[in-house]
Amino acid sequence: MQRLIQDLSELENKKIAIVGLGRSGIALVNLLSNFKAKIIVNDKKSREQIEKELQSTCGEVYQIFGGGHPANAFEEADLVVVSPGVPLSTPALVSAIYKGIPVIGEIELSWEILQLFKEKTKIIGITGSNGKSTTSTLVYEFLKKDNKKVCLAGNIGLPMADVVNRVWKGEIEIDYLVLELSSFQLEGIRNFKCHFATILNITPDHMDRYSSMKEYIEAKARIFQNQSGEDFLVLNMDDKNTVSAIEYLRNVYLKRGKLPHIFYFSRTQKVYGAFLDNNKIRFCPREEIDEAIRREMENTTLSIDSFKIRGVHNIENIMAAAILAFSAGCRGESISEIVQEFPGLPHRMELVRVLDGVTYINDSKGTNVDAVAKSLESFSGNVILIAGGRDKDGDFSSLRELVRKRVKALILIGEAASKIASAVGDLVPHYFEEDMEKAVKRGREISTNGDIVLLSPGCASFDMFKNFEHRGEVFKEIVNSL
Q: Confidence class of residue 308 from pLDDT cuts 50, 70 and 90?
């Protein structure tokens, strides 16, 4: 597919509409200002609020449209760039597409610009329903330990447009760019290409945005749609939806040509890639890959007992991150050292404290049902689970067996409390609490020595909190005040 921008000079006086003025939107304003583009800003916020937020940018804005997404916001646009939070099904965007105006995401435009002045930068893309941030951070830490010039961006850290802007200005130098990519971000790509990519897992999530699991799977699978035979793809062999994406892969490459090098990771079987064997992660390379990569993989074994981070899902995250790092030329020694030091990210199976023999765990990032399942699988039992929030059309009945075996009691909060109780509340004692403080205090009241009080909501946070980070911080503050 032909690139949208053939030369940076084409951006001068090009009318580019930026839809959504969040972090990526602000970063795009700053990036495009370097090239004298005529920037149109559109957001659901009021014009006054938009103007206030634009004060932090360094560029001039050609037009502002606030209060929603009117069709006339894009009438003059040569190109429309959409923030991840704005669905492409928004009527004004559908109308723009119908009129032949290209509609893309921030990732696509940032990549197109980067290619025009730093084409040799290797892109490492990570997507999945759960584990993206941890895996992305691990890959970044592995490469940094290996003395590679690397930056972390996308859905974590800096927006990609911000990184590209800093590289253009000579503020940073990179050879590798690790990108955490959500399905929303992947919806807006055309030519964007990952040299190294992974799909960690695909479980029901954002079903309030997607009409079917098939549509959601295909959004995730877009991460490999432009890969070639020299590139690398890492897939979860234990996840049926990820494996089903292989059929999508084959359909794409019937038209495109040679498949990328494909590695798998698995906790249950030996595969080409990474697998679990007697509490150790071992690596099995394919014959056709570079000899140096094969040697590092064959000579590296990671002992799970040496990891600081806990949880079965983090075993998978480490497997995926290690294969990506090996593929990018990282030494096994660098990987081994980091996995023994890495403490994990906040709000992801984070140990808050142990009080009177009771362990309090903050897993506020567990915003869908599968994340809760993986968290519960990490404990043998005696879990007092705090769950609930804003439902994302999750199937909580799929947790019944885990709740029966590993949960001692349920403490339910938020809009989804009754739905969760209907699905699994008959299995164990359950309590409805109106806020986090009462939920934590209930957890302390009913817990005994050896129990785990686990916040793993299985829901979005927006009914009670600003975001999952806010929810986790509130939980930690309350726990630490007990």
A: confident
